[in-house]
What we know:
About 45% of the residues are buried. Strand 1 (about 65-70), helix 3 (about 70-80) and strand 2 (about 85-90) form a beta-alpha-beta unit. This protein has helices at about 15-20, 45-60, 70-80, 105-120, 125-130, 130-140, 150-165, 165-175, 205-210, 230, 235-245; strands at about 65-70, 85-90, 190-195, 215-220. It starts with 15 loop residues before the first helix and ends with a helix. The protein has a 4-stranded parallel sheet with strand order 1-2-3-4, sandwiched between helices. The chain is about 40% helix and about 10% strand. By secondary structure, the protein is α/β, with parallel strands linked by helices. The protein has 11 helices and 4 strands.
Amino acid sequence: MLHGFLDTWRTWELVLPALERRHDVLALTLPGHAGGPPLPARLTATSTVAAVEAAMDAAGIETAHVAGNSLGGFLALQLAARGRARSVVALSPAGGWGGGSAVLADTLAEQERLHAAVRAGAGQAETLMATPAGRRRATASTTVAYEHLPAELLAHQMVGIARCDAGRMLRFAATDPYEVDLAAIACPVRVVWGREDQILPWPAAAARLRRELWHADWVELDDVGHAPQLDVPVETAQLILGWTGV
Length: 246
């Protein structure tokens, strides 16, 4: 299970019980994110996926069913191209935009703004998440539904955003080609996208993937935002389990 930029492993908390009834689950926090390992001295286009592979190796996992959201969805596709995935469920994966698209620049600008704003208020995270208005504000860019989300989880995510080493990653992301050899992917791939995604808007942010990964199983979710695992956790768990074939 691979989370998105600025997030932590706990983004999967609401889907984990269903998955753990059928699978042993490894939910990682990526390098540079709160609770994860530090970033390497030099960032490259493959440094993060290499860190995920190292974590799999350390856990004795040669191949796995891989699910990822946003950045994590892109990493899931990279793992598949490297032969480490038995199947992939990519939720609003990054890197799917076409050449010349403004999606990347717009997304990075919004992430930079979000990181700065959250850092300023993270010390009051528990207080802010104690009110419905605070929880709605915190999830406005990631989910359509929010009433079911625990205040403690949202406070954790807010602190996680503030503690993320975002500056270096954002600077690198602006020049990252987001390369993945889609033709090398031999495992089944399911791509899930919320029609109300405010971070990677459907369908513009999926232009390249729709063209080159046309044979994947594409699932569009009405009234769902960028993080289906938070927005509709029960349906997301079903979509993952229905693809792992277990």
